Amino acid sequence: MIIVLDFGGQYCHLIARRIRDLGVYSEIFPFSIKLETIKNRQPEGIIFSGGPRSVYESDSPNLTKEVFQYILDKKIPILGICYGFHLIIHNLDGKIVSKKQKEYGKTKLEIIKSNLLLDSLNPTEIVWNSHGDHVKKLPPNFDILAKTETCPIASYANREKHIYGVQFHPEVKNTPKGQIILENFLFKIAHCKKEWELKNWIKESIKGIKEKIGNEDKVILGLSGGVDSSVTAALLHKAIGDRLHCIFVNNGLLRKNEENEVQNIFKEQLGFKNFHFVNAEEIFLEKLKGIDNPEEKRRVIGHTFIKVFEKKTLELEKAFPNIKYLAQGTIYPDRVETAATSKATAKIKSHHNVTLPDDMKLELIEPLKDLYKDEVRKIGLELDLSKEVVYRHPFPGPGLAVRCLGPIDKNKLEILKDADTILLEEIEKANLYDKLWQIFCVLIPVKTVGVMGDYRTYEYICSIRAVESIDAMTASFAKLDWDLLERIGTRIINEVKGFNRVVYDISNKPPSTIEYE
Ligand code: XMP
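Above: the input record for the complex with xanthosine-5'-monophosphate. Below: its predicted structure, written as C-alpha cells.
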C-alpha cells in the first residue's frame, strides 16, 4: 500500500484515487502521522502531498524527526510533490527560496537526466505547476532530473536513498503524462504489486461482515435509495441475507414516485424480505409548517428523521431479537477530511446526513468507509444494482425542502414534483443525464402574471438548475441547448398547474451554491 501524507494540498484525495485506479491501495494520513501507524501499515512507498504553506515558515506542517528518520533508515521510497518536494530538501538541509516570479499553469518540462521516475517520457513534456517557492540548493547525492524555463530544479532524485520529487502536479489531468510518472513511482521504484481489485474487495468484505456479525445477529440500515446506502444494503444482503433490516422513511420530500420506485427495486427486484417502509410524510409536513428559514428547515428535518427512525428501530428491536448493529453508507471522503477540504467546508450549510444518538447501543458498521464514490459505483454494478441506482444524481438529505423555497406545503411540493418529472424526462430523452452532475427544478414562491388562452394567470416561478461538476466543491452551470430549454419550459408551463414562468439559472459555484437553501 501507499501512504499519502497530507500537508494541506487540495489534491490529496485525487492522488490517492489515482493510485487506486492504478491497482494499488492507498490511504491518506495527516502529516503528523505516528511512527506506529507507519510500522503497522508497512507501506511500499510514501507520497508527500503539496500544500499552500512555505517550508521555511516557523509553524509550517512537517512530520516528526523520528518519523522522517525512520522512513530514511528503512529506505521506504518517497515521492515529494510541490510542498512535499520542498519539505524533503528542507529537512535534509538543502535550501528553499521564495521567488517573485510564481509559476502557475501549464509549463514545458525538460528532462535532463534519464531516470526511473520520468522513464518513458519524451525529452520535453507539458506539466501543471502551481508554486512560488523553489529549490535553490540540493543536499549532497541528489541529482537534478528536469527543469523548466523559470525553475532550474523541477525534479530530483537520490537513487540510493529512493527519494524522488517533482515540483509540478503529476496527479492532475493537466499534466498529460502524470499517470506514467505515478506508475513509474509505484511499479519501478516502490515495486508495488497490482493487488487492489474491487472484485477481491467484495469477496473479502463479505467474508469480514459474516465473521463480524456471526449467524444470529441482525443489522439495521437506513436506506435512502441514494448510491451509498443502496450499495451498503446490497453488500450486507449478500453477506447476511434477510438478517438485514432496511428502514426506508418517506418524508414526503422525495422526487415524484421515488418512494415506490425504491421499494420496488429492493423488495421486488432484489428480493429483500425485511424492507420496512415508514410513511412519515404527514409528520414531516406538520413539523415543517410555516418554517421559512433554510437552516431551521434542515434542523427540523434532521431532528424529525432521527425521531422517526428511532421509533421504528425500537419497534423492530421488539419484533426481531438480536438487532445488534447499525449500518451506514459512510464513504472515504466523508470520513477523511483532508486539511484542504476541512477548511473549505467551513459550514456554509448544515448537512443532515444523520447519525443516531449514542444511547441506542447499536454497534456501527460502515463497510464502504475506505472507498471512493467511483469505487462504490463499480461495486454497486458488481452487486447487480441497476445503472439507474448506481449513477443517480446526488440528492440532498433534506430533499425537495431545500428546493421549495419559503414555507412548504403539500400543494407546492406537488407542483415542484410534477415539473421535476418533466425536466428529467426531457433530459433522459436528450441523453444528457449522465453528463450532468445534477439537474432539478426549484419552486420560487413569487407569483407573476401570464396569459393562457383567454385567461390571465398568476402563478409561481420555476427555476431550472443544471450543473456540471466533479466533486460539488465547485460547479458551473450547464450550457444547455436553447431548443431543449424551450421544450422543457413549454412543457412545464403547459402541463403543470402552478407554474406560468420558467427561468434558467446561470450562476456558478462559487459564489452561488448548487442547492438554493
Ligand atoms: P451545495 O448546495 O452546498 O451542495 O453547493 C453541494 C452538494 O451537496 C448536496 N447537498 C446535500 N447532500 N445532504 C446531502 O446528502 C444535504 O443536506 C445536502 N445539501 C446539499 C448538493 O445536492 C450538492 O450535490
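Notes for the reader.
The first strand starts at residue 2 and ends at 6.
DSSP finds 16 helices and 18 strands in the chain.
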